[in-house]
Each structure stands twice: as structure tokens, then as C-alpha cells.
Write a structure and sequence with these properties.
By secondary structure, this protein is mostly beta strands. The protein has 1 helix and 11 strands. Strands 1, 4, 6, 7, 8 and 10 form a 6-stranded mixed sheet that branches. The chain has a 3-stranded antiparallel sheet with strand order 9-5-11, with no helix packed on it. It is elongated, with a radius of gyration of 31 Å. The termini are far apart.
């Protein structure tokens, strides 16, 4: 009988201990902790899952020619970009694969300044709706076959934007051959609005 009584007291003490802990977790208690003492504080956090979603085309054909009278020698379609996320996002280029193998003696320029045998391609955010840019100011130049961390666009929640392929080429670059430029885009959450 003594053994059952002891077990009953132990169960009762344990249940009171857990009910006290539960009560303390529900009610905010303020107390001083003396120097050299210790104490516990419960901290509660909330996880907010966020799905980042941006819509843009996966293939964009463009033509480049020295016969264009503008500073921008590229004709490209408008590239619409839409943030479908519930947070602002940054659209960046992380890497650009460039293949100039069909352009004899042509080389790449990373900064938009071209020599006679060079070509430069970049991305420019739309300044006026449905109007192809004629100049190269504020162009984000693509680097060939190397890692780069280049922002091309900031989009607020559910915002739509657009960009164009722009570029230039030297006088000795053949206009009768094809080449490919394949940027890798990365979308990340950003804290600010554009």
C-alpha cells in the first residue's frame, strides 16, 4: 500500500509540475535574475513560407546589325517580366554562356566598348512602354562565360516590368552568322521596393 501511495504522490507531483510549466508558457511573467544567477525565457518565432515566382520568356531571338542608325545595334522583342510573389524580388544574372564559334575572329566585350572585331550584348530595363531603346545608357553588360552577380531588375509584389536585349558590334564583325548568348537568371527576395 505504501508503494502505491508513493507512486500516486509522484504522478501528482509530476502533473503539477507540467501544469505549472504550461501555465507559465501562456502567461507573461517578469522577474529579476540576480548577477551570477540563471533563468529561462521562452521565445516564440513564426515561420512565414514564401514561394518566389517570376514569369519571363525562356527564348528571345534578336538581330544585330551595323546598318542601324542608332547607338543600339540590336533589334529584340520586349521581354516581359512579372513578379507573381507576395514579396519584392530581385532579378539578377548569375552567369552568361556565350558561343561566338560561328563568328570568325570575333571576340566579346564585357563593358560595351567594342573594337573592330568585338561584340557586346547587354540587358536594359524598359524606359518607355513598348519602345525599343535606341541608346546604350544604363545597359547592364553581360560577361562571357564567367560568374557575375548583376542585378537587372527589382520588382515589387505582383509588379510587371520589361527589358530589352541591346548591344553593339565592331565594323569587321560578320553580320551573316549566328551566335548565342544564354544568361542564367536568379530570383531572390529583396527587402526594399524599387
Amino acid at each position: 500500500m505504501k508503494r502505491k501511495s508513493f507512486l500516486l504522490q509522484l504522478v501528482l507531483a509530476a502533473s503539477m509540475l507540467f501544469s505549472t510549466v504550461t501555465y507559465a508558457a501562456e502567461k507573461a511573467v517578469v522577474r529579476d535574475i540576480p548577477i551570477g544567477g540563471s533563468g529561462q525565457m521562452e521565445m516564440v518565432g513564426t515561420v512565414e513560407p514564401t514561394l518566389l515566382s517570376v514569369t519571363m520568356p525562356t527564348f528571345v531571338p534578336f538581330n544585330i546589325s551595323n546598318s542601324l542608325s542608332t547607338q543600339n545595334k540590336v533589334v529584340s522583342p520586349r521581354i516581359p517580366v512579372k513578379n507573381n510573389s507576395n514579396v519584392p524580388v530581385s532579378v539578377d544574372v548569375a552567369y552568361t554562356a556565350v558561343d561566338l564559334s560561328k563568328l570568325e575572329n570575333a571576340t566579346w566585350s564585357d563593358n560595351g566598348t567594342v573594337g573592330p572585331n568585338q561584340i557586346a550584348i547587354g540587358l536594359k530595363q524598359e524606359e518607355e512602354k513598348d519602345v525599343m531603346p535606341t541608346d546604350l545608357s544604363q545597359t547592364r553588360w553581360l560577361k562571357d562565360n564567367q560568374t557575375q552577380n548583376m542585378n537587372v531588375m527589382l520588382l515589387d509584389i505582383n509588379q510587371e516590368g520589361a527589358m530589352y536585349v541591346v548591344g553593339t558590334l565592331g565594323a569587321r564583325v560578320s553580320e551573316n552568322a549566328a551566335f548565342s548568348v544564354t544568361p542564367t537568371f536568379v530570383v531572390s527576395r529583396t527587402s526594399g521596393e524599387n
